[in-house]
Write a structure and sequence with these properties.
Blueprint (H helix, E strand, L loop, with lengths): L43 H14 L49 H6 L7 E5 L9 E10 L2 E6 L2 E6 L5 E6 L4 E3 L9 E7 L9 E8 L4 E7 L12 E6 L2 E6 L2 E6 L5 E4 L8 E7 L4 E7 L9 E7 L6 E6 L4 E9 L2 E7 L2 E11 L5 E5 L25 E3 L3 E14 L5 E17 L5 E7 L6 E6 L2 E10 L5 H6 L4 E5 L2 E5 L2 E3 L9 E5 L4
Keywords: Membrane, Transmembrane, Transmembrane helix
Pfam families: PQQ_2 (PF13360)
InterPro entries: PQQ_rpt_dom, Quinoprotein_ADH-like_sf, WD40/YVTN_repeat-like_dom_sf
C-alpha cells in the first residue's frame, strides 16, 4: 500500500477540510524573508515584545500613520503643511478617575463554564503590587506537589492540585537570573540585584532556597575585580549539586548546599576565548566566544562539557568559523541552535552532537518555514531558554505559528509535520520514538489543548486534553510564555506581566483532566 504523503508533500490546492484545521496542506516553496538592515535593529528585549504582539494580534500598527509595521508612510503629496505653533498654554488638570484594576476570572467561574469533556482549571490572580512597567517572570520549577516561580522580589510556590499558595520567600530587590534546573533534592540558587533602582545596579546577590520547604538558605555576594568579572549580566546553571556562574567573561563553580566555591572554570586561549554562558541538568556545558577581536567571518564558539565535581574538561566542540552557539536545546543528547554571526536572525541551523562532542547532523528547518525558538526569538535570557523547541531521544521537535514538525537527529530529515491555520503549536514533551505531546494555543476564539502527534503527522492526531472555552481569553493573553507539564497537568504563565493595575494579567493558569 503506498505511503500517504506528509502535509508538506501535498500540492497547494489541498486546503484544510471544514472542521479539521489539521488536514494536510502543502507548504509550497519557501518565501525568502526580507533582509533586515543592521542599522534598524531594536534591542533584543524590545524585539521579543514586538514579536509577542505579532503573535497576539496578527500584526502591529506603527505609531505614526496607522500603517502596518514596516509599511510606507503616506505619500508626500497627501501631507499638509503644519499650522504655525500657538502660544503654549498650561495643560488642563485631569479630573478623570484612575482606571479600575482589570478583573481576573476566578477558578470557580472558569470551571462553571466548562462543557462536557473539557479539562478542569485553576487560575492564580497574584495581588502583588508591582512597578508600573513590564516585569519578567522567570523559570518554572516543578518540585514535589508544587510549581515554583520567581517574579520581581518574591519566589512563590503554588500547589499543583488547586493553585493555592504553599509558601513564598520575599527578597530585598528584584530577581535578575534563575537557573533552568534545581538540584535533584529541590534546591535552587537565584540571583537578585543589589538595589531596587531601575538602572545602574548589579546582578550579584546569590540566594539559595529549598524549594521543598520554602526556606531561604545561605546568601552571598559575587565579588568583582574589574571588567572581566563584572556582574552587569550573569548567567547560571545547576548540574547535580553544582552551581555554575558566568559573570562577564569569567566563570566559576559553587556547591549549592553551602555556597562554597569549588573551582574557577578554566579559560582556554586567554585573550581569545571567553566564557559566555552555561547549560545544566544531567550534564554541565560551558560555551565560550572565541576570536572575538577578529572579523565575524573568522570568529567561532566553543562548547565544552565539564565534570561538575572536578571541573575537568571532558570534550570540546568548535563551531565552524563565522558561526556561534545560539541556544542549547538539550544537554543529553547535546543539541543546539547555531547562528550565522553576520545574520543571527535569519540564518540558523540545528546541530546535533554525538559522543565526545563529535558532529552528528546539521538540520536546516528554514525551508519548511520554521523559525528558531518557535517564532519567539531571544528575550535576552540564558542559553537554555528557547521556547517552541523540544528534544527527545531520536528527534528534535520544532513548533511555531500554525505548524509543528519533527526532525530525525540521526539523518536530519523531516519525519512528520502538521499545519494548523488558527493556532500556534508548541512542542511540550518528547515521547517514544519521534512522537511528541504538543500544546495547541489558540487565539480567544480558537481551540486550545494538548495533542499527541507521531510519524504520520495529522493521521496520528490524538486529543489528550481539551481546555475549556471559558478560560480562552485568559489563556490566549498569556501567549504561552512559560510552560511546564507533569503527570497530565499543564501549567502556563506569561513571560512578562504588566505592573499597571488597569492592565493586570493572570499570574498562572493550569489544566488537568477532571478526576472521576
Amino acid at each position: 500500500m503506498p505511503r500517504r504523503p506528509h502535509p508538506w508533500e501535498l500540492p497547494p490546492e489541498h486546503r484544510p477540510l471544514p472542521g479539521n484545521p489539521y488536514a494536510a496542506q502543502g507548504f509550497g516553496p519557501p518565501v525568502e524573508p526580507p533582509r533586515r538592515g543592521r542599522s534598524s535593529k531594536v534591542p533584543v528585549i524590545a524585539a521579543a515584545v514586538v514579536l509577542l504582539l505579532l503573535v497576539a494580534g496578527g500584526g502591529v500598527y506603527a505609531v505614526t500613520g496607522g500603517n502596518w509595521w514596516g509599511g510606507s508612510a503616506a505619500p508626500v503629496a497627501e501631507r499638509t503643511t503644519p499650522a504655525p505653533p500657538e502660544t503654549p498654554t498650561a495643560p488642563p488638570v485631569s479630573t478623570a478617575p484612575a482606571p479600575e484594576p482589570k478583573r481576573i476570572p476566578t477558578s470557580e467561574e472558569i470551571n462553571a463554564g466548562r462543557e462536557p469533556g473539557e479539562a478542569k482549571a485553576w487560575v492564580v490572580d497574584d495581588p502583588t503590587d508591582l512597578p508600573g512597567r513590564s516585569i519578567l517572570l522567570h523559570d518554572l520549577w516543578i518540585v514535589g506537589d508544587t510549581v515554583v516561580q520567581a517574579m520581581h522580589r518574591k519566589v512563590t510556590a503554588y500547589r499543583l492540585a488547586d493553585g493555592s499558595e504553599a509558601w513564598s520567600v520575599p527578597l530585598p530587590a528584584p530577581v535578575c537570573e534563575t537557573p533552568v534546573h534545581p538540584t535533584p533534592d529541590g534546591k535552587v540558587v537565584l540571583v537578585y540585584k543589589n538595589s531596587q533602582e531601575k538602572s545602574g545596579n548589579r546582578c550579584n546577590q546569590l540566594q539559595m532556597i529549598d524549594l521543598r520547604s520554602g526556606r531561604a538558605g545561605w546568601h552571598k555576594e559575587l565579588t568583582e575585580s574589574g571588567s572581566m568579572d563584572d556582574t552587569i549580566i550573569v548567567h547560571t546553571a545547576i548540574s547535580g549539586d553544582v552551581l555554575a556562574i558566568v559573570q562577564s567573561m569569567t566563570a566559576a563553580a559553587y556547591r549549592v548546599d553551602d555556597g562554597t566555591k569549588l573551582y574557577d572554570i578554566p579559560m582556554e586561549n586567554p585573550g581569545k576565548c571567553y566564557p559566555d554562558d552555561v547549560a545544566g541538568g544531567s550534564r554541565l556545558l560551558v560555551n565560550a566566544n572565541c576570536a572575538i577581536g577578529a572579523d565575524r567571518e573568522k570568529s567561532y564558539d566553543q562548547l565544552r562539557e565539564i565534570d561538575p565535581r572536578t571541573g575537568k574538561v571532558l570534550w570540546r566542540h568548535r563551531t565552524q568559523p563565522g558561526w556561534k552557539v545560539g541556544k542549547a536545546l538539550s544537554v543529553d543528547p547535546v543539541v543546539y541552535t547555531s547562528l550565522d554571526a553576520q545574520d543571527t536572525i535569519g540564518n540558523w541551523r540545528i546541530v546535533s552532537l554525538g559522543p565526545g562532542g563529535k558532529l552528528r547532523t546539521t538540520i536546516d528547518a528554514r525551508p519548511k518555514g520554521f523559525e528558531k525558538c518557535g517564532d519567539r526569538g531571544d528575550a535576552g535570557e540564558g542559553i537554555q531558554n528557547c521556547p517552541g523547541m523540544v528534544v527527545g531521544e531520536k528527534a528534535v521537535h520544532v513548533g511555531g505559528t500554525k505548524q509543528v514538525g519533527a526532525y530525525d537527529l540521526g539523518t536530519g530529515k523531516l519525519v512528520w509535520g502538521v499545519k494548523s491555520e488558527a493556532t500556534t503549536l508548541h512542542p511540550l514533551r518528547a515521547e517514544s520514538g519521534t512522537s511528541a505531546l504538543v500544546y495547541e494555543s489558540g487565539m480567544s476564539s480558537g481551540e486550545s489543548g494538548i495533542i499527541r502527534f507521531g510519524p504520520g503527522g495529522v493521521d496520528t492526531k490524538k486529543q489528550v486534553l481539551r481546555h475549556p472555552r471559558s478560560a480562552r481569553a485568559t489563556e490566549s493573553g498569556m501567549l504561552a510564555g512559560r510552560l511546564a507539564y507533569v503527570n497530565g497537568r499543564i501549567v502556563i504563565t506569561p513571560s512578562i506581566v504588566n505592573g499597571q493595575d488597569s492592565r493586570r494579567e493572570a499570574r498562572m493558569l493550569s489544566f488537568a483532566p477532571e478526576k472521576p
